[in-house]
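Run DUF1825 domain-containing protein through structure prediction, thanks.
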Amino acid sequence: MGFFDSEIIQQEAKQLFEDYQALIKLGNNYGKFDRDGKKLFIEQMEAMMDRYRIFMKRFELSEDFMAQMTVEQLKTQLGQFGVTPQQMFDQMHLTLERMKAELEKQV
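Sure, done. The structure for DUF1825 domain-containing protein is below.
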C-alpha cells in the first residue's frame, strides 16, 4: 500500500490542513484579541507547527516514491525563496517566540 493510500494519512492530512486554515483565518483578528486570547492563539500555533513537523517527518522517513516526491517538491518550492524546510520551521518558531516576547511586554 502506498503512503497516500493510507486512510490514516489521508485523514490526518485533511485535519491538519483544515486546522491550519482555521487558525490562519482566526489569526487575521490577532490584533483584536485580549492577552489571554493571544496567548492561546500562540499555543495553538505552536501545537500546529509540532503536528506539521511530525507529519513532514513521516514523509521524509517513508520509502514510498510519492512521499519522497512530496518532500522534494516542498524543498523545490521553498528553495525558490531561498529557504529549506528546516529554515521554514525555524522561522516559524522564531516568529512565535517574538509574539510571546511581545505579549510579555504587555503585562
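The CA atoms of residues 50 and 89 lie 9 Å apart.
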